[in-house]
Amino acid sequence: MKKVIFISIFFGFVFLANSQRKNANVEKSIFGVQTNFTEIWGYTELKVTDEIAMRIEVGLESFFFGGKFYDQVDFAFIPVVTLEPRWYYNLQKRMKDSKHTEGNSGNFLSIYTSYHSDLWITFNEDDNFKSVSDVSIIPTWGIRRPLGKHFIYELGLGVGYRYYFSKQAGFEKDGEEISFNVNLRVGYDF
């Protein structure tokens, strides 16, 4: 009888411990800013499911241009809007290994979809410069990790497709190319 009571108490504690264990889920919403020191973005990530978040960001990306049609090399900022569904596939494993999962700290796969406007900001006005809008869709693998309580860093790598709306800028035809997404960003989550 003592063995039955002992086994019942033991399994009761195991069941209680497992029932109180938290699941690692994507945060309901995150707001923040990020930079890679030449570009800046404001973003939010909204929970879709326990492992999927929808990232929406607006930013200014840098662009260098020059060559035989320009008198000098110039630098411009081009506005970008991004919609990026992210699947954080290893949150449960990170939690089991006692690693941070707060703020969606984990590895992710995403479809980085961005639109660059034909608006631009430059410090050296060049009458020959023509900005061209583009849309890109780039499957991306990345990591997101904390640097203290509110600071984070992200690394992303991907290869995809970019389509240029060149006719709108006066060129003969629209363009397309293979596009790369290589980024290292640091940021602050509010």
Written account of the structure:
β3 and β4 (74-88) form a beta hairpin. By secondary structure, the protein is mainly beta. The termini are far apart. The protein contains two helices and nine strands; from the N terminus they run αββββαβββββ. Mean pLDDT is 83; it is low at 4-21. Strands 1-2-3-4-5-7-8-9 form an eight-stranded antiparallel beta barrel. It has one domain (25-189): Beta Barrel (Porin), CATH 2.40.160.20. It has helices spanning 2-20, 91-96, and strands spanning 29-35, 40-47, 52-65, 74-88, 106-116, 121-122, 134-147, 151-164, 175-189.
Summarize the structure.
Helices cover 13% and strands 53% of the residues. The protein is built from two helices and nine strands.
Order of helices and strands: HEEEEHEEEEE
How much is the average pLDDT? 83
Largest sheet: 8 strands, antiparallel, barrel
Oligomer: single chain
